Amino acid sequence: MSADAAAQNFLERAPLELRDAVVALFPAPLQWLVSSLITIAVILTVFGVFFAFTTIAERKLLARLQNRLGPNRSGLPWLKGVKLWGLTQPFADAVKALTKEDVVPATADKLLHFLAPVTVVAFSLLGYAVLPFGRNMVPVELDAAVLYFFAAGTATELAIFMAGWASRNKYSMLAAMRALAQLISYELPLILSVVPVVIVTSTLSLQEIVHAQGGWAFGFLPQWHVFTPWGFAGFLIFLVAALAESNRSPFDLPEAESELIAGHLTEYSGFKYALFFMAEYFGLFALSGLGITMFLGGWQAPLPFLEFIPSYLWFMAKLVGMVVFFIWIRGTLLRLRIDQLTRLSWQFLVPLALINLVNAAFWALSTGHSPFLDVARWPISAALIVLPFLVMGRRLNQGRAPRQYTYAQ
Amino acid sequence: MTAALLILAFVILGAAAVAMTLRNLIHSALLLVLTWAGIAGFYLWAGAQFVAFAQVLVYVGAVSMVVLFAVLLTRQSTPQPIEPDSIVRALTALTAAGGVAGVLIGAILAAPLQVADAQPATITVKQIGQALMGPHVAALLIVGVILTVSLLGAVVIASVDRPEDSEDAS
Predict the structure, then answer these.
(1) Could you count the other beta carbons within 10 Å of the beta carbon of residue A63?
(2) Cα Rg for chain B, rounded, in angstroms?
(3) I need a labelling partner for A73 at 20 to 30 A (CA). Which of A115, A145, A156, A279 fits?
């Protein structure tokens, strides 16, 4: 099926036509407002439900990775005996969070203590405005979408600082400092890992970046950025930095419960705690969505004959894949120490991302010169990133491994 | 459009004014961040998308952290009363501030501000990038070198010559 035929697919156009039909019911001066509100409502609903089921999926998957069963008891309130494998657990959790007592410390800065969870959720949702969820499905088409995405994400650091400071609790404050050190350290490799894509596609618009990854080599191989040497390296750096940016294991030091109680969330309870939790997942989904758009071909199908499946379903399928991968990582790796965390970023990821930048520049300049160069640039580009990776990896571990255990023999 | 500008001006000036009157330094710093965000909103209103996002990324994201950490690390446990040390100091401060204000206001009033009749052309990010990499590449490089030098200088000033803890490295 050709790309044009795919765009005319009924399922492909159904959501947009439904929206247009609803918008047409309203008088003309209100139409732009209704159109925007519908988009916002759909994003909130889809990702809200996605968040709810990610929590249960994470709990069940982690349980399986740890040889447990996980939550499997919650059923439906009016149907005794129907358990649905515990899939209604997130709704029970939501009711629990809503009905819990909201405890605010007596000496806390009440206003900031309230504002912190609100800001963090609001700003974690801003990034969704520019993500291309499907063919023709971009909430806001911006010329500088990549820049907007990172600008929208920066305010979460402020919110974490507000939460830590307003709680008047030494654990909260210490954890907020840790979180900020972590976020600032990993913002750099995160942005640097994305810049090669911008160099090669020479655009900051996310939709155009997706279009640049369209088409098939030899008629069946997808031309996603992750399948080029610089793109693969960039994707790996992006994955590590995204894990650290969303405070997930193995980089979940800010809320290392054995050292810092619950980090900057120590003094939060009930729904405010749930809001932080929600913001963390929303941030993770948004970053995954950016990774998908930048490296994994966005909403494009992996093989030509699979194009009959609508583009937004491909996007969601890739998102589910990313989230499951992150859960897998959480069940596998151990938490890093704070010095290991910062060293990994500054001594390894940042230099590697800078080298990858040069690599991408070489790739962009060597396009279409001669047939020989078009083939030769693959091994050259791979060598340009693999050799520094090996050298720097050796240097990073020098004198530090293997670890000598003093007490735990 | 004018109503949006008025709201933006109210947010920017109001946040700045409240930031100066508050006794709580952290609240002042956060309001300063709101002012920067408002300025970003003004850039958006004026149609300069790229500058607006850069403003948010640099000021709201990075500079705010520097300000907040500076406040946090230098904060005194007991709040000091805000009053001048002596009459002479207060008078000098007022004179200096008045002089600067006079020069600035004079410069603004004397500058011929021509309002263009034609709509400014919408400039894409690509054009900005090509202008920066083409005609203005020297300026860009010089700014980069200056920033790198200042960063290295900061590292040199802040670093302490101490051998790495051998026990920690194991």
Answers:
(1) 15
(2) 22
(3) A279
> Which structure tokens are listed for A393?
């990896």
DSSP 3-state percent helix, strand, coil across chain B (nearest 5):
75, 0, 25
Q: Taking a C-beta distance cutoff of 8 angstroms, is the pair A299, A315 a contact? A: yes
Which of the four pLDDT bands, split at 50, 70 and 90, describes residue B48?
confident
Collapse the DSSP code of A398 into the 3-class scheme (helix H, G, I; strand E, B; otherwise coil) and give the result. coil
Mean pLDDT of the region A394-407: 74
Q: Which amino acid is at A170?
A: K
> Is the pLDDT score of B118 beyond 70?
no
Cβ–Cβ < 8 Å for A156, A120: yes
Residues of chain B whose C-beta is under 8 A from some C-beta in A?
Answer: 26-27, 30, 33, 49-50, 53-54, 56-57, 60-62, 64-65, 68-69, 72, 124-126, 168-170
Q: Which residues face A134 on adjacent strands?
A: A137
SS3 A101: coil
* In A249-370, alpha helices (H): 257-260, 270-294, 311-332, 338-343, 350-365
Contact (CB, 8 A) for B121 and B48: no
Whether residue A155 and residue B60 make contact (CB cut-off 8 A), yes or no, is yes
User: Which residues from chain A sit within 8 angstroms of residue B64, using beta carbons?
Assistant: 158
Spell out which residues of chain B touch residue A158, defining contact as CB-CB under 8 Å. 30, 33, 60, 64-65
Which of A144, A158, A404 is opposite residue B125, by nearest beta carbon? Answer: A144
Distance, CA of A188 to CA of A354 (rounded, Å): 10
Whether residue B56 and residue A180 make contact (CB cut-off 8 A), yes or no, is no
pLDDT, one tens digit per residue, over A171-227 is 888 888 888 888 888 888 999 999 999 988 888 888 888 888 887 777 778 888 888
